[in-house]
Amino acid sequence: MTVLDVIEGSTMTPVQRWTGRETKALRYALRMSIRDFAVHLGVAERTVSKWEAGGKSVNPRPEMQAALDTALAQAADEAQRRFATALPQTNLPAPASGSGLDLGAAARGQVTRTRQALGLTTSCTVG
Predict the structure, then answer these.
(1) If 83 and its partner were Cys, which of 8, 29, 41, 74 is the partner (CB 3.0–4.6 Å)?
(2) What percentage of the chain exceeds 70 in pLDDT?
């Protein structure tokens, strides 16, 4: 799967590898300024700024990855939901040629699970 999934019981799976993009999404989900987020993580503001500016090409050190995992795990349910919906699901593994993987069905399933986790209806009417 990608960066994370919302699964039964609204439990978040850990981010497999944090980048500046996920870091920024977490900060936004927590509704913190760069300064407050840096204090929350115990790092310098410049460090957070560099992560975010680097986007997908920046990976924080392993100890910072753990701190980000902890910050996400300790976030309120609402912040975790904001984080889950903040990132496009673009890191899916490419299907092998002829694998028969239906990406449309996979995407619909993901949307359905997310809507259920958020307590929204899963039916859709097209008029």
Answers:
(1) 29
(2) 65
